[in-house]
């Protein structure tokens, strides 16, 4: 029977030049210094040098994590990837707390502050190279849009799109969502629109040759906000606070109608709902007169 040491040597012969330091340590449950000695004494060579920052932000590759996908979407919109495979993010100093949320998710990194902006540079060539390959993300993404891998779907894709909106989108005072990018992004922005609304729509290019998509249906906006809350995404509150999750008029009607049918009187309905007196009376009168809605 093989000893644990013999199993470790066998594993190293096969994987020492293929896998990351972190993965090898976790698999063998040994310290890196012991693994290096074991490899040296058995003439097992490691054919590449692993930088101290390699795989530091490996969590960015956890594509099953909605929070990770939110941050990927945010970076695809508001981040810049260099030819050296670093990601730089510049935000208004007012949004420093958002950078701190990213730090809490990924791990420690330096935050540089100026009087007006906060800047972060993520240095992890191994992780960022894979992320770049997976999303076809190049330095000039303004003119060359990224590609979303087909395996990112459902809640994960939703989370990524919300992150993208926080990075490159706009929510006006009426709570309407707008995303504007270079005309080369037209197809992907319309894809985002379809996933958020379940409606296909072709948008015209703007006069300055940009692609602009917008969502202005109150019910759709409300559903998006509620899903964000359910998924506990780390959104920019200053944007999403503009979308209220209050009940729509027909939904309020249904609530009051249901209570009336249960035998609730006016005062109890008022206590349960906090709706206005006039609205409750109107619904009760409509029900008494056999009307379907208000």
CATH class of the largest domain: Alpha Beta
Cα radius of gyration in angstroms: 26 Å
Low-confidence runs: none
Query: How helical, in percent, are the residues?
Result: 40-55%
Domain unit count: 3
Q: Mean pLDDT across all residues, rounded? A: 91
CATH fold topology of the largest domain: Endonuclease I-creI
| Helical stretch tally | 13
Assembly of the depicted chains = single chain
Output the strand order for the largest sheet: 1-2-4-3
Q: By helix and strand content, what is the structural category?
A: alpha+beta
CATH architecture annotation of the largest domain: Roll
β content, as a range?
A: 5-15%
The sequence of SSEs as H and E is HHHHEEHEEHHEEHEHHHHH
CATH homologous superfamily assignment of the largest domain: Homing endonucleases
Q: Describe the biggest sheet? A: 4 strands, antiparallel
N-to-C CA distance: 80 Å
Tell me, briefly, the overall form: elongated
Strands, count: 7
Question: Could you characterize what this model shows?
Answer:
With 294 residues, the protein is an alpha+beta fold. It folds into three domains: 4-41; 58-240, Roll (Endonuclease I-creI); 249-288. Helix content is 49%, strand content 12%. The chain is built from 13 helices and seven strands. It has helices spanning 4-15, 21-28, 32-41, 66-78, 96-106, 125-135, 154-168, 186-197, 218-231, 237-240, 249-261, 266-273, 277-288, and strands spanning 79-81, 86-92, 111-113, 117-123, 169-171, 177-182, 210-215. The chain has a four-stranded antiparallel beta sheet with strand order 1-2-4-3. It has a three-stranded antiparallel beta sheet with strand order 5-6-7. Helix 4 (66-78) runs parallel beside helix 7 and helix 11 packs across helix 13. The longest helix has 15 residues, at 154-168. The radius of gyration is 26 Å and the shape is elongated. The termini are far apart. The model has no long low-confidence stretch (mean pLDDT 91).
């Amino acid at each position: 029977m093989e000893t644990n040491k013999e199993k470790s040597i066998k594993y190293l012969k096969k994987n020492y030049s293929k896998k990351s330091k972190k993965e090898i340590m976790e698999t063998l449950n040994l310290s890196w210094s012991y693994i290096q000695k074991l490899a040296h004494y058995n003439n097992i060579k490691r054919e590449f040098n692993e930088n101290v920052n390699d795989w530091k932000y490996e969590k960015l590759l956890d594509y099953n994590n909605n929070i990770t996908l939110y941050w990927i979407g945010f970076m695809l919109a508001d981040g810049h990837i260099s030819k050296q495979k670093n990601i730089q993010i510049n935000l208004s100093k007012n949004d420093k707390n958002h950078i701190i949320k990213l730090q809490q998710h990924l791990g420690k990194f330096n935050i540089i502050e100026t009087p007006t902006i906060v800047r972060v540079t993520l240095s992890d060539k191994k992780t960022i190279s894979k992320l770049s390959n997976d999303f076809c993300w190049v330095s000039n993404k303004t003119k060359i849009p990224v590609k979303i891998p087909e395996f990112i779907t459902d809640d994960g894709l939703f989370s990524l799109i919300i992150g993208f909106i926080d990075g490159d989108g706009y929510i006006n005072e009426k709570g309407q969502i707008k995303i504007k990018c270079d005309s080369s992004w037209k197809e992907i922005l319309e894809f985002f629109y379809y996933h958020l609304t379940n409606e296909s729509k072709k948008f015209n290019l703007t006069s300055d040759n940009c692609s602009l998509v917008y969502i202005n249906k109150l019910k759709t906006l409300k559903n998006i906000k509620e899903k964000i809350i359910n998924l506990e995404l780390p959104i920019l509150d200053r944007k999403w606070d503009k979308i209220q999750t209050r009940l729509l008029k027909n939904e309020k009607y249904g609530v009051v109608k249901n209570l009336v049918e249960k035998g609730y009187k006016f005062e109890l309905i008022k206590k349960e709902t906090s709706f206005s007196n006039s609205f409750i009376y109107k619904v009760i009168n409509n029900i008494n007169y056999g009307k379907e809605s208000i």
